Amino acid sequence: MKLSLRKLKVHLDMSEETTAFSAELYADGVKVAFVRNNGTGGCHEYHWYDHGVGREMEIAVHEWARKQPLEFDFEHLDQIVSHMMAKKYHTQKPKPAICGRRRINLRK
After folding, report:
1. Which of 10, 16, 80, 96 is 20 to 30 A (C-alpha) from 41?
2. What is the band of 97 on the pLDDT scale with cuts at 50, 70, 90?
3. In sequence order, what are the residues at sequence separation of 6 or more whose Cβ sits closer than 8 angstroms to the Cβ of residue 41?
C-alpha cells in the first residue's frame, strides 16, 4: 500500500507540543481520510471517507500500518503520517512573505 499526503497545511503558529497540521490522506491514489493534529500533544484525528465499503478501507490502512517497522509499538499510523508530514513540509518550496515591497523568506 502506498500512502501519501496532499493539501498539507502546517500551522506553526498553533503548534504547542506537536506540529499542528491538516492534510488529505491518500492510499494507492484514492482519498481515504482527512487528517489533522491540533498541536497540543494529542494523537492525530482521522475523518475517514466512506467509499461504499463501510470501514474496510480504514481497517486496511490501520492493518498495513501495524505491519511496518517503526520506532514505537503504538499509534502506528500516526507515526507514519507524522514522518510523511515532516518530510513533505521540509521539502516544500517556501512561499515568500511580502512585507511592504520586500520579499522575506520565512524558512531557510
Report:
1. 96
2. low
3. 16, 17, 18
User: Band of the pLDDT at 15, cuts 50, 70, 90?
Assistant: confident
Residue whose C-alpha cell is 500500500: 1
Phi (first) and psi of residue 80, to 5 degrees:
-65, -45
Q: Name residue, grid cell 471517507.
A: 49
pTM attached to this predicted model: 0.76
Domain boundaries of the chain, sorted by first residue? 3-104
Burial pattern 57-78, b for ≥16 Cβ within 10 A else e, equals bbeebeebbeeeebeeeeebbb
The per-residue pLDDT for range 58-85, each reduced to its tens digit, is: 999 999 999 999 888 889 999 999 999 9
